[in-house]
Write a structure and sequence with these properties.
The complex is a heterodimer of chains A (about 140) and B (about 140). Chain A is built from four helices and six strands. Chain A is of the alpha+beta class. The mean pLDDT of chain A is about 95. Classes of the chains: A alpha+beta (about 140), B alpha+beta (about 140).
Chain lengths: ~140, ~140
């Protein structure tokens, strides 16, 4: 792969919005093997005191990384990725929920860029301390 | 006795070998809304980075099945997650995962548990470490 050049600290990476529907959660449950009922059953979510079914944190985490892989070109450049799950993404049965993702280059060192990704749902950050390390060379 | 600092260092046997397939990679990429990424298609695709969760969550099962720890997935909240890759997973890789309990902070009914899952090929090549912090709350005494 050719090197990523012209990268600067503070550079904004193109973002996108995604609507998560119940069907998306069922699809991710099957793909990932995470069948925790709080991601598809209203009563299981209510039993935990949640307002409604919530998205898999890993689905939000995996979707957020698309900001980085779309920019980096080759997903193999991503060498580490970490997030905190700060707020659940509540997904009502009708219409789903929109999450908006965008990224910023926060650090350049030793041939790697650190990228932070914002994930906003209803104006609130649903992931915290998001950092992906991307190999530039 | 339920999970405590005494369980730090406990490891579980490696999961049964799992063969990464093109079809599963395509299915996972589609679930992320990333089915159009050419890296995840073709004859020799790599897996989306967070595909590692397919293997790491399988490794969690052994810990949740350990009767001594008295854990329940339904009383567990995933607090944070980190992946560090040696290389991407690829179609054809035969992968197994080993879970180790790295840290436990128990206070009352709540335990904060850090686990590390090491993914490697069945020939011993290290692929990825998936580190998770979980918050677990003990159920009501029966």
């Amino acid at each position: 792969m050719s090197a990523l050049t012209g990268v600067e600290v503070g550079q904004r990476l193109p973002g996108f919005s995604r609507t998560f529907t119940r069907a998306d959660l069922v699809r991710y449950a099957g793909a990932s093997g995470d069948f925790n009922p709080i991601h598809w059953s209203n009563s299981a979510a209510a039993a935990l005191g949640l307002p409604d079914v919530i998205a898999h944190g890993m689905l939000t985490m995996g979707t957020a990384l698309r900001v980085v892989t779309d920019w980096a070109g080759d997903p193999a450049r991503v060498r580490s990725y970490s997030v905190r799950f700060t707020k659940p993404v509540v997904v009502p049965e009708d219409g789903g929920t929109v999450v908006t993702f965008a990224g910023t280059v926060t650090k350049l060192a030793d041939g790697f860029a650190s990228v932070s990704v914002e994930a906003l749902c209803d104006g609130v950050l649903v992931l915290g301390a998001v950092t992906a390390e991307v190999e530039l060379g | 006795m339920p999970i405590s600092e005494d369980h730090v260092g406990r490891s579980y046997p490696a999961t049964a070998p799992y063969q990464v397939s093109r079809a599963k990679i395509a299915e996972f990429a589609e679930a992320l809304g990333d089915g159009d990424n050419p890296a995840y298609a073709g004859d020799d695709p790599i897996a989306p980075p967070t595909f590692a969760v397919v293997l790491s969550s399988a490794a969690w099962d052994a810990m949740f099945a350990d009767p001594e720890l008295e854990l329940s997935l339904s009383r567990t909240v995933h607090v944070d997650q980190r992946f560090a890759w040696q290389r991407p997973l690829r179609s054809g890789d035969e992968v197994s995962a080993t879970l180790t309990i790295e840290k436990v902070r128990a206070r009352g009914a709540t335990a904060i548990i850090t686990i590390a899952v090491h993914l490697s090929t069945t020939t011993g090549e290290a692929l990825c470490t998936a580190t998770s912090t979980l918050m677990h709350t003990m159920g009501e005494a029966a």
